[in-house]
Design brief:
The protein has about 150 residues and is an alpha/beta fold. It is built from five helices and five strands. Strand 4, helix 5 and strand 5 form a beta-alpha-beta unit. The longest helix has 18 residues.
Amino acid sequence: MKITVCGSIAFYKDMEAARDDLLALGHEVKIPQLALEVPQQFGGGDKVYFGKYVEDNGGIDSFPVGHELWDLKESAIRDHYEKINWGEAILVVNPEKRGVAGYVGGNTLMEMGVAFFQQKPIYILHPVSSELSYKQEIYGMKPVVLEGDLSKIR
């Protein structure tokens, strides 16, 4: 099966591990792109972690609508939506983040919505925390909760 892995970029190492495990199980896999070329004013090189960059540079309100940083974010979002379109299903990697077990962030929720709209199966690695106000929306998309077992993906 062609599977696109989704999750917070904070879980990138977990997503790489999931990719490797899925490949070993015979699936084709794509994960988020971190190799976007970053303009020099955002540190240069080939990686930008938007949340960290924003936190390190004055917070979200330091980057108003129209700021060129949002062009990079838009590009990353569109790139990952193309991967969702390519896939036959998505896997949401959702370990603990900031004390919230089964964390699913805003971007990942949007990615789940795209897969749901495209009527693709949504697999989620761990149960979703009740601390998330949008848990009902997540469970309304009828994800298959894997309880950490990728071999349950069919």
